[in-house]
């Protein structure tokens, strides 16, 4: 009896101390965030999730930049709608005709075929081996591609380009056959992936040694490099970067405006403390042209639901079926807390999407790491933390803050 009473007393004291500590922490966040809240109030455009942005806040920066990147977190519904909304705006008001995909070169080739024909079997085939696994068989993602195809069919044509690591050998072969139907003649399609890659590489080398058109030569040379990356298992961020540099040369993109929609891990403009050096950061390191001309919009979520494959989760949080709906919020002390997230919540309402400009002349984010400094109490998942020598605006000029997004609907 005495032990039970002692245990209850200790548990009560621990609870009180924990509550007090958390309370003090939140008070500290509110006090330290005052300057940021004042700034954010004057540098935002906020809409309900169902309303379209005017994009008045960002239009000046769009005009001043050639490469416009959006970094999503895969598995949420709201980003699939924002992508269509933003690219439609860029296509109609800024004549952006190039859309960079988180797909390989051949997958993007057939996505263009889908835009031209509307053939849903092409779309389904491309998505079979898409690197964004959660989007392979997902209603939200599929409707996104269909809406973009509808945009294309209205006369607002554009071209997809893919710079990701080679994912689909069968589509690679189909792509090569459309470029040169004799090139892969006689191949045994029952061979292993490695043998198929080697056969294609040798066939391309033989064709490049012949007298062929400059256009075909440049296309095959790009494909050859990607086969080599696949064989050598080159780091994915390096492939994304070198491929994009190749595509800029191949398609003459330096004098055009280009849009790209990727996972957040590829669009950060600076390396993070955890050691990851994203594609966008590598581009800015490669050439000052990219550091001067790249605009990055990154995303943060609170009170939202994410689609996750059930077999990747502990059994006690799995839903029935292939996919589970996982609650995600970057204001959780247990799983992910981004310092400064309360500033965003103070300046927005539930059920909204808000675009914040972080780099205005009077921005406190230009001298701090707020929003890019995080912690968690539970050892699960990843955090994104600024390097010691960096500030928030080194990672992107805009933030899209989404509250109450539904999951990407399976």
From TrEMBL:
Say which domain of life the source belongs to.
Bacteria
Can you say what this protein is called?
A: Erythromycin esterase family protein
Origin organism is: Thalassotalea mangrovi
